[in-house]
Design brief:
There is one protein chain. The protein is α/β, with parallel strands linked by helices. The protein folds into two domains: 54 residues, Orthogonal Bundle (DNA polymerase, domain 1); 275 residues, TIM Barrel, CATH 3.20.20. Strands 1-2-3-4-7-8-9-10-11-12 form a ten-stranded mixed sheet, covered by helices on one side. Strands 5-6 form a two-stranded antiparallel sheet. α7 links the parallel β8 and β9. The longest helix is centred in the middle third of the chain and has 16 residues. It is elongated, with a radius of gyration of 21 Å. The relative contact order is 0.12. It binds S-adenosyl-L-homocysteine. S-adenosyl-L-homocysteine (SAH) binds next to β8 and β10. The site of S-adenosyl-L-homocysteine (SAH) has 19 residues, from β8 and β10.
């Protein structure tokens, strides 16, 4: 299902919905759901503790529940993700998992353990409708939106592996979640906000991950950025800019034909003002396409004196793409130009390239 260049898909095809899961529901809705099943409301709290604290979906191990209740309540813990394949690199500290969803749709998530943190990179849609030509996910088109619980389950699965000591470095916890896997999170707004809430709500309501550790990355859906600012969830916003001028950005990030660089940057600054969170500008450096010093200069002028951090990503190779990463000297010059303007800038230490698990490489094929 490859997309013609520049075509955007906002509305996901209508498909059967995944089963309702505990993680789709707020605490109040969980109590209501449990009552509907003929169980006492407090069973929702017990179930939540098992799922969000003990990280288990196995009702057989829930010994504080009567046997008959276990059976009934298992309806709220359907298996949503089936692992198809796991690939690891960096001595086991970077792990990509390919998942099959109930309807056969495929998505991927990536766990990255660093000395001081563990980041889960999750998918929010099967495929993506935003059609950025340098991104493998964008080339496949949009299959469907993921449910809140399908998103949360990716994090729970990583948390489980860490808690069980399956990731080198000893038992650990997920400290960061980035919505930088497959999909455009803000095009699946409602389900993504539900997932963010489940991630940051304290246990046993949710996983208790700090909102500061959660990053939502977007191509720049301007109205949705405004909505996100109003949610009262101080998550980090990452904006995939990739070009400082409309002429080039129209081709690299086709959403730019809808909302221009100036508009999307205004939305980002409003987000920063509202949340007091530094906005991250993502910029994949593509050899001889967007890595000229004059573009660094233009970018520097656009973002200087703002609450911002520029994250440069050496372009990762994707199938069929003619583009490659910038020459090291051009990358250095780009960094220097930004620094000249006093802009905070880092070059992303990209992980997972060996397993097609790096930025822009998730394509989820068997
Ligand atoms: N749709 C959202 C979430 C995906 S995040 C977004 O675009 O922000 C994935 C990040 O990796 C985005 O910044 C994306 O532009 C970037 N990316 C995509 N393809 C890439 C590639 N081949 N090399 C490096 N970065 C890439």
């Amino acid at each position: 299902m490859s997309q013609p260049p520049g075509q955007l898909t906002f509305v996901a095809p209508r498909r059967a919905k995944p089963a309702r899961h505990l993680a789709d529901l707020s605490m109040a809705d969980r109590r209501a759901a449990v009552t509907e099943l003929g169980e006492k409301a407090f069973r929702a709290d017990q179930l939540s503790r098992h799922y969000f604290e003990r990280l288990t979906s196995d009702v057989g191990s829930m010994t504080d529940l009567p046997a008959a209740s276990r059976e009934t309540l298992s309806a709220l813990l359907p298996e949503l993700l089936t692992p198809v394949r796991e690939m690891a690199t960096d001595g086991g500290t970077t792990r990509k998992t390919l998942w099959r969803l109930f309807d056969g749709a495929l998505v991927e998530s990536v766990l990255m353990r660093y000395p001081d943190r563990v980041t889960m990179c999750v998918s929010s849609q099967a495929g993506c409708g935003m059609n950025c030509p340098f991104c493998a996910t964008g080339q496949a088109g949009l299959t469907r939106n993921m449910s809140t619980a399908e998103i949360v389950e990716q994090v729970v699965s990583g948390a489980r592996a860490l808690a069980a000591g399956e990731v080198p470095g000893g038992p650990g916890r997920v400290s960061n979640v980035v919505f930088m896997g497959m999909g455009e999170p803000l095009a699946n707004y409602k389900q993504v906000i539900g997932a963010v809430r489940r991630l940051v709500e304290p246990a046993p309501q949710g996983l208790g991950i700090s909102a500061r550790g959660v990053t939502v990355s977007t191509v720049g859906l301007v109205p949705a950025i405004g909505k996100l600012a109003d949610e009262g969830l101080p998550v980090t916003l990452a904006l995939s800019l990739h070009a400082p001028d409309d002429e080039l950005r129209d081709t690299l990030v086709p959403i730019n034909t809808r909302w221009k660089v100036a508009e999307v940057l205004d939305a980002a600054w409003a987000y920063a003002a509202r949340t007091k969170r530094r906005v991250s500008i993502e910029y994949a450096l593509i050899k001889d396409i967007n890595d000229q010093e004059w573009r660094a200069d233009l970018l520097g002028k656009l973002v200087k004196n703002k609450l911002v951090h520029v994250n440069l990503i050496p372009l990762n190779p994707t199938p069929g793409s003619k583009w490659t990463a910038s020459r090291p000297e051009d990358e250095r010059a780009f960094v220097r130009r930004l620094q000249f303007h006093g802009v905070a800038v880092t070059v992303r230490d990209t992980r997972g390239r060996e397993i097609d698990g790096a930025c822009g490489q998730l394509a989820a094929a068997e």
